[in-house]
TrEMBL record:
Pfam annotation, one family: Rib_hydrolayse
Residue intervals passing through the bilayer: 18-41
E.C. code: 3.2.2.6
GO biological process: positive regulation of B cell proliferation
GO cellular component: plasma membrane
Family: Belongs to the ADP-ribosyl cyclase family.
Protein name: ADP-ribosyl cyclase/cyclic ADP-ribose hydrolase
Top-level class of the enzyme under EC nomenclature: hydrolase
Domain of life: Eukaryota
Native source organism of the sequence: Seriola lalandi dorsalis
């Protein structure tokens, strides 16, 4: 036979060798991807506990390992959209909120401002300044059915399903904090929106409903305003707030500019009472 250019076509052994090498190459790629995915998932499941424990240890006299174990029992191995508020009851029992009469600060749509204030002034405490709130602030977590791991990615968002682990925790923790509210309580609300007391907010739907007149004397609303304020203390939603309060709890509302609060934050020598 005549072979063009003097080259023979590959025989069967050469073709077989090429096929084997191709299969080996594909297997190496698949194994590499599998190892990478495994390491990524393990990283995602291992990173929450160290953060939790480290933050917890900043609060003295706590068995942080025990609190972690109780915490993860609320959601591990469960559908991430089927973790109700009640799943965190054992956690609240293991690390209960303590009453701080006349120093408790609630907020709605003012998170950044209120925390800038409490970071510099120790006269008020928010949920996020207390053990469980501080430990889990800004974090995401969930479990998966059939898994004993904690995941920090691929979890449902706040509004994706009502009973997701993060939303249920904050709702339960907010309820627990409101249950121990006592004395004069302060709430910092946003005066730059048309409905500062929104019925869908955690403050309206959970916290206010649990304020108890046998423990709490007064609710002082600090309505934070900007230069172009769109609401004031006569806002209709604030009238609804007053109606929602347990009978016997007194109510007061003060309009305060954001600039005034920031100025007071930067001058710790001033009494907190003078901030508004």
């Amino acid at each position: 036979m005549d072979y063009t250019g003097g080259h023979r076509p590959p025989d069967k052994r050469q073709r077989r060798r090429c096929v084997i090498l191709s299969v080996i190459f594909v297997l190496v790629i698949m194994i590499t991807l599998a190892v990478t995915l495994t390491l990524t998932l393990r990283h995602n499941t291992d990173q929450l506990k160290p953060i939790f424990i480290d933050r917890c240890k900043k609060f003295s006299r706590n068995d942080c390992e025990k609190i972690w174990d109780v915490f993860k029992q609320a959601y591990v191995g469960k559908d991430p959209c089927e973790v109700p508020m009640e799943a965190y009851d054992p956690l609240i029992a293991a690390a209960p909120f303590k009453p701080h009469c006349n120093r408790m600060m609630f907020w709605s749509k003012t998170k950044n401002l209120v925390h800038k204030f409490t970071e510099k002034r120790d006269c008020f405490l928010t949920l996020e300044d207390m053990l469980l709130g501080s430990v889990l602030d800004g974090l995401t977590w969930c479990g998966k059915e059939g898994s004993s791991e904690t995941f920090t990615t691929g979890c449902p968002g706040w509004s994706e399903c009502e009973n997701n682990p993060v939303r249920s925790f904050w709702n339960r923790a907010s309820a627990a904090l409101a249950d121990v509210a006592c004395g004069d309580v302060t709430a910092m609300l946003n005066g730059s929106i048309t409905t500062p007391f929104s019925p869908t907010s955690v403050f309206a739907s959970i916290e206010v409903k649990r304020f108890n007149a046998t423990k709490m004397k007064r609710l002082n609303v600090v309505l934070v305003t900007q230069t172009n304020a769109v609401t004031n203390c006569t806002n209709a939603s604030l009238k609804d707030l007053r109606k929602e309060l347990d009978k016997g709890i007194k109510y007061n509302c003060t309009e305060v500019t954001e600039f005034q609060i920031e100025e007071c934050s930067n001058h710790p020598e001033k009494p907190c009472g003078s901030c508004w």
